[in-house]
TrEMBL record, chain B:
Keywords: Cell membrane, Membrane, Transmembrane, Transmembrane helix. It comes from Companilactobacillus mindensis DSM 14500. It is a multi-pass membrane protein. Its main location: membrane. It is found in: Cell membrane. CDD domains: TM_PBP1_transp_TpRbsC_like. One of its GO terms (cellular component) is plasma membrane. The lineage of its organism: Bacteria, Bacillati, Bacillota, Bacilli, Lactobacillales. InterPro entries: ABC_transp_permease. This is Nucleoside transport system permease protein.
């Protein structure tokens, strides 16, 4: 009974709480006021229409990269390629929008999003193919592919998209912007954009895919037991490749939406986009559950957006929220420790009852 | 430029860039040979770079030119303490190794930049260190004609130390009983346990040593290349070291060789302009070479059969 309830919400909730406590302790040690800061965090993330708009916008890419990670892990794979797939998706969407800017808005947007998603999917599929046919660890290949695409995109932006001497591509045409005047108007000029609804729709699609389709079922079967699926007639190689393809499609779509709705261009960068890693964190907290990912993304998004105002209202470094995020995932990772604790606590409680009975 | 000068530049830059990778990749072999997958090397380097830089800035006036060397040790200690997270999570609490390693990579930059802001008036980067690891000319060896100039003049002393450490690590793993035991824990923990080897102890040792060496790697990076600490001091070197370890087939000598090769790939964009054949090649190809080569090597030569057999699996006694 207890182990069953642990598999539900207990572990994530304890982990979140523990993460916040770690953050609070750290703030106390260095003389910052945790209660004040957590209040500012709440105010900065959900305290007004503008901040809510920002938090919801920031959720988009977290949801999509998390879904991407979750799909791969359902098939038993650890796709660390989220940052790279997000980046190539962003790049693909910007390239499409810049090169076909004469197309009507709707077609331009759909084309750009598809182009970005497909780029992410194909990039991730490389790892899938290598895994399926050569048994190459997807952990290693996706890490390597991340850095390869980082440098390739930098190279392409600098030598192809950007004008001479510049490190950024030109901005995309306004008609392709997902952050429309209407949305700006109702959200106090936040960056909230239509991508949010796309992300929610995709959550539904992924949920449906795993619950109701044969292909989704096959992915889970392969994740549970590769050889058993093989004997049952599942084409394991194809399933692996499909899982990695979908995984990359989702992360790529996240990059594409951010490209059109938030950044509006692409620049040379020294580091991989953090959102890919944070998406992993979101998925890990939600244990890969598509609906859980929405809530987990809301939490992390609020932390990130609220974190910005922490350093505005006080001199507390905003990195504290990243420490909280990392701690939460640490606690999710060591869930065995909680299982141990509950087990012992449960035993203790039982003993007490017996003792109490004896005393009477 | 004369051939000798070109070669001298090639070797010295290669050594400078290879040194952090060698230490970190060697650290990786310790962790993985004891059966704990370590994708958190990047995080360990970040913490090492941070610790060493803070020490260097604080004590440069006390220790003078010795400071960078003591800083390496401090960076190593920081890395060791930080890696305790990974050891506790994976060995004691049976966490997934990749998740735990990812936590290190998420935690390290957050924690290090947080502390940097606490220590340096809210700034996200430290001031530049005054006492850095300069270049070194070997007293006698540099007198050897040609080779002395190419290999032993104005070069990186720490890289030579790194190579020696690499050889020592090989000796440890393949010529000492302690090393054999550590390898056995990574290959077949149950058999090792039955033979009376303390599996938990060796796994902790493996992870902590990797933290120690990763910390040195990060410290070397900060003390000889970036000369300060910020969020971008370590940008992918930990993952490149991971690649070097794999490319070197989890063998310290292989890892050292691979790290040297990756050091060459990193230095080529800088020195390529002086080399007639290479000056037309775009630097992007040198940048992606280490990563692409690692994938190709994994696919063609290795498959999955070379990693320690029980790498990444949690050993649960009595199961």
């Amino acid at each position: 009974m207890h182990t069953k309830s642990l598999k539900g919400l207990t572990i994530p909730l304890i982990s979140v709480l523990a993460g916040f406590i770690v953050g609070a302790i750290l703030m106390l040690i260095f003389g910052y006021d945790p209660i004040q800061n957590y209040q500012n965090l709440l105010k900065g993330s959900l305290g007004g229409i503008y901040s809510i708009g920002e938090t919801l916008r920031n959720m988009i890419s977290l949801i999509l990269t998390a879904l991407g990670f979750a799909v791969a892990s359902k098939a038993g794979f650890f796709n660390i390629g989220g940052p790279g797939q997000y980046l190539i998706g962003w790049f693909g969407a910007i390239v499409f929008t810049l090169k076909f800017s004469h197309l009507p808005a709707v077609i331009l947007i759909i084309g750009a999003l598809l182009c970005g998603a497909l780029a992410g999917g194909l990039w991730s599929m490389i790892a899938g193919v290598l895994r399926a046919y050569f048994g190459t660890s997807e952990v290693i290949t996706t890490i390597m592919l991340n850095y390869i695409i980082l440098y390739l995109v930098n190279f392409a932006v600098k030598s192809w998209l950007a004008s001479k001497g510049s490190d950024s591509s030109p901005n995309i045409t306004t008609k392709a912007n997902l952050n429309t005047p209407f949305l700006q108007h109702i959200t106090d000029n936040s960056t909230f954009n239509w991508g949010f609804f796309i992300a929610l729709a995709v959550v539904g699609l992924v949920w449906f895919y795993f619950k109701k389709t044969k292909s989704g079922f096959e992915i889970q079967a392969v994740g549970l037991n590769e050889s058993a699926s093989q004997y049952a007639g599942v084409n394991v190689k194809r399933t692996i490749i499909i899982a990695m393809l979908i995984s990359g499609l989702l992360a790529g779509l996240g990059g594409a939406i951010d490209g059109l709705g938030n950044f509006e261009n692409i620049s040379v960068s020294n580091n991989l986009p953090n959102v890919g890693y944070n998406g992993m964190a979101v998925a890990l907290l939600a244990a890969g559950n598509p609906i859980g990912i929405i809530f987990s993304a809301l939490l992390f998004s609020a932390l990130q957006i609220g974190g910005l105002s922490i350093s505005v209202y006080s001199n507390t470094p905003s990195e504290i929220v990243d420490i909280v995020i990392a701690s939460i995932i640490f606690f999710v990772g060591i869930k065995y420790a909680f299982e141990l604790m509950t087990k012992k606590g449960w035993l203790k409680r039982k003993n007490k009852v017996v003792k109490g009975g004896a005393e009477k | 430029m004369s051939l000798t000068t070109i070669l001298m530049t090639v070797f010295s830059t290669t050594f400078v860039y290879a040194a952090p990778l060698i230490f970190t990749a060697l650290g990786g072999t310790f962790s993985e040979r004891s059966g704990v997958v370590n994708v958190g090397l990047e995080g360990m380097m970040i913490i090492g770079a941070f610790g060493s830089t803070v020490f260097n800035l604080t004590f440069a006036s006390t220790f003078g030119s010795l400071t960078p060397w003591i800083s390496l040790f401090i960076g190593a200690l920081f890395g060791l303490v930080f890696s305790l997270l990974h050891a506790v999570a994976t060995v004691t609490f049976r966490a997934d190794h990749i998740i735990s390693g990812t936590v290190l990579n998420l935690m390290a930059p957050a924690l290090a930049v947080f502390l940097t802001r606490v220590l340096y008036e809210g700034k996200g980067q430290t001031p530049v260190i005054n006492q850095s690891m300069g270049n070194f000319t070997f007293p006698l060896l540099s007198k050897i004609p040609f080779i002395g100039k190419v290999l032993f003049t104005h070069t990186s002393l720490i890289a030579f130390i790194a190579i020696i450490v690499g050889i020592l690590c090989w000796y440890f793993f393949f010529r000492t009983s302690l090393g054999l035991r550590m390898r056995s824990v990574g290959e077949n923990p149950m058999a090792a346990d039955i033979l009376g080897i303390n599996v938990v102890k060796y796994k902790y040792m493996g992870v902590l040593i990797s933290g120690f060496m990763g910390g040195i790697g990060g410290a070397v990076m900060a003390q000889s290349i970036t000369l300060n600490f910020s969020a971008s001091t370590i940008s992918g070197q930990g993952f490149m070291s991971l690649a070097a370890m794999i490319f070197g087939k989890w063998n310290p000598l292989g890892a050292t060789g691979a790290a040297l090769f990756f050091g060459l790939a990193q230095s080529l964009p800088i020195i390529g302009v002086y080399i007639p054949l290479l000056s037309h090649v775009n630097t992007v190809w040198f940048q992606i070479a280490p990563y692409a080569i690692t994938i190709i090597v994994l696919v063609i030569f290795l498959g999955k059969a070379v990693a320690p057999a029980a790498d990444g699996e949690n050993y649960i006694k009595g199961k």
